[in-house]
Each structure stands twice: as structure tokens, then as C-alpha cells.
Write a structure and sequence with these properties.
The complex is a heterodimer of chains A (about 190) and B (about 300).
Chain A: E1 5-11, E2 14-20, H1 26-33, E3 52-55, E4 58-61, E5 74-76, H2 90-97, H3 107-120, H4 126-132, H5 144-165, H6 183-186
Parallel strand pairs in A: 1-5
Antiparallel strand pairs in A: 1-2, 3-4, 3-5
Helix pairs in contact in A: 2-5
Chain B: E1 7-9, H1 14-23, E2 28-31, H2 37-42, E3 50-53, E4 63-66, E5 69-73, H3 78-83, H4 85-90, H5 92-98, H6 104-107, H7 112-118, H8 124-131, E6 135-140, E7 143-148, H9 149-152, E8 153-155, E9 158-159, E10 166-173, E11 180-186, E12 196-204, E13 210-218, E14 225-226, H10 228-234, H11 241-254, H12 265-286
Parallel strand pairs in B: 1-3, 2-3
Antiparallel strand pairs in B: 4-5, 5-10, 6-7, 6-10, 8-9, 11-12, 12-13, 13-14
Helix pairs in contact in B: 5-8, 10-11, 11-12
The chains are: A alpha+beta (about 190), B alpha+beta (about 300).
The complex binds flavin-adenine dinucleotide and FE2/S2 (inorganic) cluster (FES) (2 copies).
Chain lengths: ~190, ~300
């Protein structure tokens, strides 16, 4: 019954192989077989969102998928956000600047959920961000700073996009909280 | 919180899947989105000997709109169904209902067929299927049958599906142009299963009177139910506030919910009446008088 199956998965852009029992969850495969412990495991029944990763570009609960089910598919974890492993992704930078994490347990899931949210809706309202993150639980922050960080990342994205287009002035999306000074600006 | 060991099959086509479902009908399980089954397995409330993963079967996924019906393949993701242009335009009631299911990450994986086959009494999709008189298409190795939504659910998490049968698609009749619709529910938190869910469809005739009414409820018993008395009361009447209220009042009296840890029976009965009245009011506002659909 516990026969091992060989699977090939693209993880954060790199082809990886593993030998797994069918009951190995994607979360455990990433953490224990791939050594990628950034994906966190909280409830193991789909409720907390800590284990959220993107599979083929869509957010999923990695505790409710078996690794054998992502054979030949593409997985993005929090380790894949930074372009070079050193520079923070704009979302990570915004979380850092807005104090959007305390213990950090929920953060990987928050980041990947937000990544999909901003990709599908680059200028969300505060209400849309709150709705988009409603499936991710945080025991520490009270969410306010997480919402601010996501809005700030959206704002930054909108600003750079319109600068690149060279036309309209960068405006906050409707309903956005005021931009908070960055760590650099305070220093 | 880890599931018991199981054997895994990922059939590539329907005949292969049907033969596996038949071979392992005594203790195997079909897995679609896994958003209900895997939590049960992680808690070891379910211990299937084998999983038959139907996600790789292309013919089970997709949406087909033809001849006044929209047919949704069993493994179509809830998110893809809810955002599909044919569904948004022709079955806005279904699109609205899907927006209440869990969270995006659940809809990204959870399937339309999985929700209907799972038959949670508080799930949104079986309620819509009942309101729209959907047809469930089912296959086994040696045949197929079509089951009307009203006959599909038997009880809590129990349907007429036999262990060797696979739900392949659900087909929804497109309501007449100008129909008003509303899906509404009350849940403890956004994304939770509903305490009570209501799906309403209303058509108005050329005189502005109710031509047909369909009211389905979830969360008020072991299976979704139609509010037949309220529907009969509405048909032929002008949909004034007092008429909608009178119809909604019959619902509270008709349902027999049970107490559970989420809500008392009294509260559920109260919610049923209130939600039906509100949903009827919204559906009336969205309905067009027959002949004036495009005004
Ligand atoms: C955190 C969370 C919140 C949720 N909130 C909601 C909610 O608010 N409303 C709601 O309705 N649902 C909710 N769900 C459940 C979700 O909608 C599920 O996706 C759905 O109930 C089952 O669909 P699935 O494709 O995931 O099925 P699976 O979990 O794969 O299967 C469920 C059952 O149906 C059987 N089955 C599946 N497909 C077929 C088929 N084609 N033929 C025969 N049998 C089949 C399986 O064998 C299994 O017994 C939630 C889930 C989670 C984890
Ligand atoms: S660990 Fe997967 S959702 Fe909580
Ligand atoms: S920062 Fe601790 S759970 Fe969110």
C-alpha cells in the first residue's frame, strides 16, 4: 500500500523529482522532501490558509492536495517570490515596511494569496483585499497592517505601471488607505 | 492529522475511470477537488482503500451552452464555473451562489460535481440545482442515467448515486429572459457553510404578475427543499410587498430544521422566512415584465 511513486514537479521554476507515498500531502512534500519549510502547516483541513501555495498560478491549500496530484505541474512557494533569494519581492517589502507580520506563521499563505489577488485585480479596494484574505487566518496582527501592506503593494505597482506608461499620474486605488511612510523615509 | 495509506489511480479517460470505480466500489473513493474528501481523510473520518483521481479526464471538465441548457462537466472548478461568461449571463443565480462558497483557494480546486455529489445540506450548489430543476448525468460501466435534482439527495451527505456510478455532468435549464433571481445566505463568517441559504427565481408575465416562482432552501433539513406553498401562493399574483411577505411567512412555518451547534431550529426557521422575503424582493427588482426584457 505504501508503494512509492516518482513524481516530477516544477518548484519555483526548477524541475524537481521526488519519491512519495500517495498519501504524502503537497505541504509535507514541499517541507520534508524538498526542504522548503517556508510553507506552513496549521490546521490541515483547509481552514487556516497558512499552507497556501500557487499551483499552475492558482492559490490552493497544499494540505488538501496530494503530491502525486501535482506530478508534471508548476508550484510556487514563498521561497520563489524573491527574484534572487536576497532582494525582497515588492509584496514582501510592503509586509516588511508596514509591520504586517509578528510571528510570521501566516505570512507565506498571506503573501501567496495576495500575489494571486493583485495579479487578478491590480488595484483592489480595501474591501476587496479584506474579502480576498478572508480565508487566511492570522492570530497576531489583527489584519489591519496586512491589509495596509497589500494595498501599498498594489499602490506601488500601480505607480510603477503608470510611470512606465509615462502618462497618468499615480493615484491611489479607490478605497485605499493612505500610504504610510516607508522604513527608509522614517530613517 | 495524516490520512491512512491508500492506493492511487489517475485514469486518463472515462471508460478507465468507470472500470476502476466499479472494481473498487466497496471501499475506494473518487477524488475530484478534494476540498471535502481530504479534510475527512486527514481526520480519518474517511479511510478509502484507493483513490480514483478524476482530475486528469479532459471530457469531464468544461461548460457547454446549447438548446436552452448550460451543462457543466463534473470536474469543472467552481471558480471557472462562476466566472464563465455563459454562466454569468445565462445562469446568474448560479454565478451568485458560487461567490458564497468558501474562499478563492477552495473554489480554485473544488468542483461543481464534487459539491453536488457530496450533498452537504448547507452547500450552495445543491440548492441552486434544485431551484433550477437541474439534471444530474450519471454513468457506470454498463449504462447511464439522468436524475432530476429533486430526486438526487436522500439525506445528510447521501445521494442516489451508487458506489459504482460517477456523476459526469450537471445540466441546468436556462430560465426565460427577464427572469429575476437572487441567491442569499447567512453564515457565521464569510466563506463558512450557510446556516440557511436561499435561491429564488421569479418570472413576470405581460401583465406584471408572477408567471412562475421557484424557491429553494438549504440548511433547513437533511436535504435542500423547495418551498412549494410559497411558490403556489405567488403565481398569478402581482408581486406587491404584502404578497411577497405572505409567501415568505409560509416558509418559516413549512420548514423543520434541527438544532445543532451552529444555530437553533427556531433561529433557522426565522432566518428562512427573512431570507426568502429579501431574496424575493431582490428577484422582483431584477425581473423584467415579459415582452420588456430589453428595455
Ligand atoms: C475551508 C473550506 C470552506 C468551504 N466552504 C464551503 C462553502 O461555504 N460552501 C460549500 O458548498 N462548500 C464549501 N467547501 C467545500 C467545497 O465546496 C468542496 O469543494 C465541495 O464540497 C466538494 O467538491 P470537491 O470537488 O472538492 O469534491 P471532493 O472533496 O473531491 O469529493 C467529495 C465527495 O464527492 C465524491 N465525488 C466527487 N466528485 C464525484 C463525481 N464526479 N462522481 C461521484 N462522486 C464524486 C467523492 O468521492 C467524495 O465522497 C469548503 C471547503 C473548505 C476546505
Ligand atoms: S494547513 Fe492548510 S489550510 Fe490550514
Ligand atoms: S503573524 Fe502570527 S499568525 Fe499572523
Amino acid at each position: 500500500m505504501s508503494e512509492l511513486t516518482t513524481i516530477s514537479v516544477t518548484v519555483n521554476g526548477e524541475p524537481r523529482e521526488g519519491r512519495v507515498e500517495p498519501r504524502r500531502s503537497l505541504a509535507d512534500f514541499l517541507r520534508q522532501d524538498m526542504g522548503l519549510t517556508g510553507t506552513h502547516v496549521g490546521c490541515e483541513h483547509g481552514v487556516c490558509g497558512a499552507c497556501t501555495v500557487l499551483v499552475n498560478g492558482r492559490s490552493v491549500r497544499s494540505c488538501l492536495l496530494f503530491a502525486v496530484q501535482v506530478n508534471q505541474q508548476d508550484v510556487l512557494t514563498v521561497e520563489g517570490l524573491s527574484p534572487d533569494g536576497v532582494t525582497l519581492h515588492p509584496l514582501q517589502q510592503a509586509f516588511h515596511e508596514h509591520h504586517a507580520l509578528q510571528c510570521g506563521f501566516c505570512t507565506p499563505g498571506m503573501l501567496l494569496t495576495s500575489l494571486e489577488l493583485l495579479r487578478d485585480n491590480p488595484a483592489p479596494t480595501e474591501a476587496e483585499v479584506r474579502l480576498g484574505l478572508a480565508g487566511n487566518l492570522c492570530m497576531c496582527t489583527g489584519y489591519v497592517n496586512i491589509v495596509r501592506a497589500v494595498l501599498a503593494a498594489a499602490d506601488g505597482h500601480a505607480a510603477s505601471a503608470s510611470t512606465a506608461a509615462g502618462s497618468e499620474t499615480a493615484e491611489s486605488p479607490p478605497g485605499a488607505l493612505p500610504r504610510f511612510p516607508t522604513g527608509k523615509e522614517i530613517a | 492529522m495524516k490520512p491512512a495509506a491508500f492506493g492511487y489511480f489517475a485514469p486518463r479517460d472515462l471508460p478507465e475511470a468507470l472500470s476502476l470505480v466499479s472494481t473498487y466500489s466497496s471501499d475506494g473513493k473518487v477524488i475530484a477537488g478534494g476540498q471535502s474528501l481530504v479534510p475527512l481523510m486527514n481526520f480519518r473520518l474517511a479511510r478509502p482503500s484507493h483513490l480514483i483521481d478524476i482530475n486528469g479526464i479532459g471530457s469531464l471538465s468544461g461548460i457547454d451552452a446549447a438548446d436552452g441548457r448550460v451543462t457543466i462537466g463534473a470536474t469543472t472548478r467552481q471558480r471557472d464555473a462562476g466566472t464563465h461568461p455563459d454562466v454569468k449571463v445565462q445562469l446568474p443565480l448560479l454565478a451568485e451562489a458560487i461567490s458564497y462558497i468558501g474562499h478563492l483557494a477552495i473554489q480554485n480546486r473544488g468542483t461543481v460535481g464534487g459539491s453536488i455529489a457530496h450533498a452537504d445540506p448547507a452547500a450552495e450548489l445543491p440548492v441552486v440545482a434544485l431551484a433550477l430543476d437541474a439534471q444530474m448525468h450519471v454513468q457506470r460501466t454498463d449504462g447511464q442515467r439522468t436524475i432530476p435534482a429533486a430526486e438526487f439527495s436522500l439525506g445528510y451527505l447521501t445521494t442516489v448515486l451508487e458506489a459504482d456510478e460517477l456523476l459526469t455532468a450537471t445540466s441546468f435549464g436556462v430560465p426565460p429572459a427577464g427572469s429575476g433571481w437572487c441567491f442569499s445566505e447567512v453564515a457565521r463568517r464569510h466563506g463558512d457553510f450557510a446556516l440557511v441559504a436561499v435561491a429564488v427565481l421569479l418570472t413576470l408575465d405581460a401583465a406584471g404578475k408572477v408567471g412562475s416562482a421557484s424557491i429553494a432552501l438549504g440548511g433547513v433539513g437533511p436535504v435542500p427543499m423547495r418551498a412549494g406553498a410559497a411558490e403556489r401562493l405567488l403565481v398569478g399574483e402581482a408581486p406587491t410587498d404584502p404578497v411577497l411577505r405572505a409567501a415568505a411567512d409560509t416558509v418559516g412555518a413549512d420548514v423543520e430544521p434541527e438544532d445543532d451547534i451552529h444555530a437553533s431550529a427556531d433561529y433557522r426557521r426565522h432566518l428562512a422566512g427573512v431570507l426568502v422575503r429579501r431574496a424575493l424582493t431582490t428577484a422582483r427588482a431584477r425581473a423584467a415584465v415579459a415582452g420588456n426584457e430589453h428595455v
